[in-house]
Specification:
- The protein is an all-alpha fold and 56 residues long.
- The chain has a domain at 1-31.
- It is 80% helix and 0% strand.
- The protein is built from two helices and no strands.
- Helix 1 (2-21) packs antiparallel against helix 2 (26-50).
Length: 56
């Protein structure tokens, strides 16, 4: 699970880096990375489903 979290974090950092290079062209950014963002959301949801809340 830690590997999945690291992979997800790397992808998010790459998208963040790209978006900072193109601050004025958000429409192209979202068109280009729409599918990637959708995949990341699914991966994140899957990752969260493996996490169980700790009881106090």
């Amino acid at each position: 699970m830690s590997k999945q979290a690291d992979d997800l974090n790397q992808k998010l950092k790459m998208i963040d880096k790209f978006s900072s290079f193109n601050p004025g062209d958000s429409s192209e950014f979202f068109t280009t990375f729409g599918e990637e963002a959708k995949d990341l959301a699914c991966e994140f949801q899957t990752l969260l489903s493996y996490m169980k809340p700790k009881r106090i």
